[in-house]
Amino acid sequence: MVIYRETDCKFLAEAGREHLYFTAVRQDEHEILPNRQCQLTSVEILNTPKKVPMSQPLAIAPKRKIFLVGNPNVGKSVLFNALTGAYTTVSNYPGTSVEISRGEASIAGTTYEVLDTPGMYGLQPMTEEERVSQRILLQEEAFAVIHVIDARNLERMLPMTVQLIEAGLPLILVVNIIDEAERMGIAIDVELLQQRLTIPVIAAATAHKRGLDEIRTAISTFAGGRQPAYAYAPDLERDILRLAVQLHGDYRVDRRALALLFLLRDEETTALVQRIEGESAAAIAETAREIIFSYRSDLHLRLSMERKRICSDLLAGVVSTSPRQGRTWGERLSAMTMNPWTGVPILLAVLYFGLYQFVGIFGAGTIVGLLEGDLFSDIINPWFISTADQFIPWLWLHELLVGEYGILTLAVRYAVALVMPIVGTFFVAFSILEDSGYFPRLAMLVDRIFKAIGLNGRAVIPMVLGFGCDTMATMVTRTLETTRERVIATVLLALAIPCSAQLGVILALLSGVPGALLIWTVVMSLIFLLVGFLTARLLPGERPMFYMEIPPLRLPQWRNVVVKTLTRMQWYFFEIFPLFILASIVLWAGKMTGALESLVRFLAPGMTLLGLPKDVAAVFVFGFFRRDFGAAGLFDMNEQGLLTPVQLTVAAVTLTLFVPCVAQFLMMKKERGWKTALIIFAAVTATAFSVGWLLNIALLSLGWLA
Amino acid sequence: MRVSEAAEEILESLWIASEEKGKPGLPCDLESDAIEGSGLHELLSLSYVEVVNDLIRLRPEGQHEAMMTVRRHRLAERLMMDILDMKGIPGDERACEFEHLLHHGVDTKICTLLNHPTTCPHDRPIPPGECCEVAKATGVIGVVALTELKAGEAGEIAYLSTSDPKKMQKLMNMGVLPGNRLDLSRSYPTFVFRVGNSEFAVDEELAREIFIRKG
Fold first, then answer.
1. What pLDDT, in 10s, does the model give residues A475-502?
2. Suppose A168 and one of A17, A150, A254, B15 were both cysteines; which one would form an S-S bond, judging by CB atoms 3.0 to 4.6 Å apart?
3. ∠ CA(B157), CA(A35), CA(B180), 5° rounding?
4. Could you read off the pLDDT of A610-634 as tens digits, one per residue?
């Protein structure tokens, strides 16, 4: 039996009165604190059994739920897809699985509901996503919780397993990415680990379908049940117990785990305890304050050190590493991408081949030429129009379907022939880069520059994605940590990042005028930096912090690339295609009622101010519906020889800066709220026209492009 | 012999001007009758400085005292930032007041506590004292901030100095815990290091909170 100090016994006695069941096993050989008489190895506090209402009908028993949890980047999503058979985005980038995916898995005749929770590092959440994960784990009833960890980093990941066991969750441990660990010379004795943890432990490489059957078997034969928690140092245990006995309410989670989270000042737990305990909450908070103060140091750190000790005991003899030989090509290339001297040229090469050659020349040139020029302009549209001429006598319907802004002649043609090839090739390039693990390297490379504009390196992902689709990128800004960073990123996306569809048309438009493209690029870069710099000064808030895991560089797997690209394309079409049709209808209605003409007339004085022909106003009106509608309109005007080089450049710059398209605006509203979205809208419009005005004056007075 | 605070400030400016900025001296804007009783008068009477052509110049006799004054100032800055966690202007202001208290061996104690730092928070060198020379000669392995490590160096994480629980948690999530080994592979444009089998990039602000026992 364990010998406790007098104070310990008092708390134990109190615990006994609270019907808590407490076991402690003595362990002599492991003594880290010389002044302690003993060390606990296992502590179990069971809640008083819950009263199950007898009237609960058995027939409509809810589906058994399985939660997938783990750090970002350990292959949770891949496992989710493998279990459920439906695909979500499989990502190499920490924090992309923002939304929770649900699916159904049928294993050995039973249907389970599977939840893929956002990546988390521990039970104390720091971000919104982690808070969601914590809430699911602590407040929803699970049949099984599958903790997925990275075999290469057992020491770093196992502490969370310990935490989950502590919370009393029915756990299955999946040691994933075992293949890469083996390649690195790391051998893991999974059997031994399973014996020590007394929960099912499965070695897997889900990306290569290894271990999937074992996981399914583990689920179908899973007995559940709660494991005894691992014990911390006696002084910590005493204090946790001291707090736990004050919690009288009915909780789903183990009280010991709850007391611990309360001591760590977890917001969710604090709120929960306050809600449930009512009046005695103040006394509990007071006890917690006393305990926290008595340590005079960070409790998080203390607990992490304790868990580290527990894990190194658990892992003794489990992991063996054979010495590594030299650096692989991947590591060498990885070092080069992070060295500014070699990293910047690599970045330029990536931009040139990935963006310019592949998206610009191949996507926007070759494929658009084939689809738009050969297929739609020469074959499909003339056929639509002649058919309509024959069968549709009503002008309004004729116009709506095949007119200037017709659904078939404009919306469908744009979506399929113009936008799909450009956005599609962009998403292919983006997915290749994402799967190779290049983005975190890019993030560390640009962190210093991004700090100057109030962001940190992490924001490079939404910014790059913005070159594909600003609407999607605006949605992805939610992965940034602070609201301030999200607002700054949203502003920059709305203002200075042209989407691929627009970029394609603008490149084609300006390439005919020597120097225009250069001026456009310089102006856009300057505005990007200047506006970022100013917004960062104007918006209050803490300085962003940059920290990021750098996953190993690897050859992209075509399967992942295809899946990621298709998922994005699918999203794009569901979100954007209806808007194309809507835009078409609105423009048609505007034309039929004459409202469009009035609006264009209303904007005309503004055009004169920028030195542009009055007709360009229509381009801006279209630009709001689709960024590239506008650019394409400009393209047509240029073909007709209506614009001078200066006018063309000014119009291109203003249009690129000009308001986001309808979809992006709606996304801004959704992510940031009406107020912020409207302010950004107004500020962006004002900036676009001021810059256009200044650029016109500057170009005319300097005599450039004349 | 202790000089007054006013005299210390003059010595400090003179040393920085002559040793670090390579100027011959500082312009003397005091009227001759105003010198009486000022810090400058004190220094003149000690022959620490001289006034030549309206320029105050540091004399060899004042060299050591001036250097130690600068040392105390920069040690005070480090103390404010590393231990008391006061950064920016408030930290600098407190350091200006604090430096005058670092006499009679207090500077040595602080220098040892800070593990003989070589640069101040503004990246200017801290003139070494006797304690630094001794520590160097006996080869004591120091604990330094990650920012002091060169790319390619490694060590054991000694402690984390942050008082911000969020930063602390981020570091712990990365496996940055006392006792773990850390290999620094890059220090520019951000700090890139390996802990266990994972590689991480952090900015200077976070790197400053990680203290490493070299070796």
1. 888 878 888 999 999 999 999 998 887 8
2. A254
3. 15
4. 888 888 888 888 777 767 777 777 8
On chain A, the residues whose CB falls within 8 A of the CB of B202 are 546-548
Q: Which of the following CATH numbers is that of domain A64-220: 3.40.50.300, 3.20.20.80, 3.40.50.12780, 3.30.565.10?
A: 3.40.50.300
Q: Give the range of the structural domain holding residue B59, as residue numbers without chain letter.
A: 1-140
Give dist(CA B160, CA B157) in Å, integer.
Answer: 8
CB A145 within 8 A of CB A169: yes
Of the pLDDT bands very low, low, confident and very high (cuts 50, 70, 90), residue A361 is confident
Compute the nearest-CA separation of B184 from chain A (Å): 12
Question: Do A184 and B197 make contact, defined as CB atoms within 8 angstroms?
Answer: yes
Task: State the ipTM, two decimals.
Answer: 0.81
Q: Is the C-alpha dihedral spanning A190, A195, A197, A198 positive or negative? A: positive
* Of B163, B177, B198, Cβ closest to residue A305: B177
- Are B5 and B97 members of one domain? yes
Q: Do A546 and B186 touch (CB under 8 A)?
A: no
Q: Is the Cβ–Cβ distance between A254 and A121 less than 8 Å?
A: no
Q: Is the pLDDT of residue B200 over 90?
A: yes
Structure tokens at B92: 């600098």
Q: Which residues fall within 8 angstroms of residue A238, CB to CB, at 6 or more apart?
A: A7, A8, A11
Among A295, A311, A444, A481, the strongest candidate for a mutation testing the B interface, having the largest count of B CBs within 10 A, is: A444
For chain B, the domain total comes to: 2
CB contact under 8 A, B203 and A451: yes
Round to whole Å and give the CA distance between A661 and B72.
60
Two tokens at A540?
């209050």
> How many of the other CB atoms lie within 10 Å of CB of A150?
23
Smallest Cα–Cα separation from A204: which of A171, A173, A178, A172? Answer: A178
Q: How far apart are CA A523 and CA A536, in angstroms?
A: 19
Going from the C-alpha of A696 to that of each of A505, A523, A682, the distances in angstroms are 21, 12, 21
Q: Do A550 and B200 touch (CB under 8 A)?
A: yes
Q: Is B139 left (phi over 0), alpha (psi -120 to 50) or beta?
A: left
Question: What's B206's domain CATH number?
Answer: 2.30.30.90
Q: CB–CB of A298 and B188 under 8 A?
A: no
- Minimum CA–CA partner of B163 in chain A: A298
Among the partner residues B168, B190, B196, nearest to A298 by beta-carbon distance: B168
CB-based contact B173 A121, cutoff 8 Å: yes
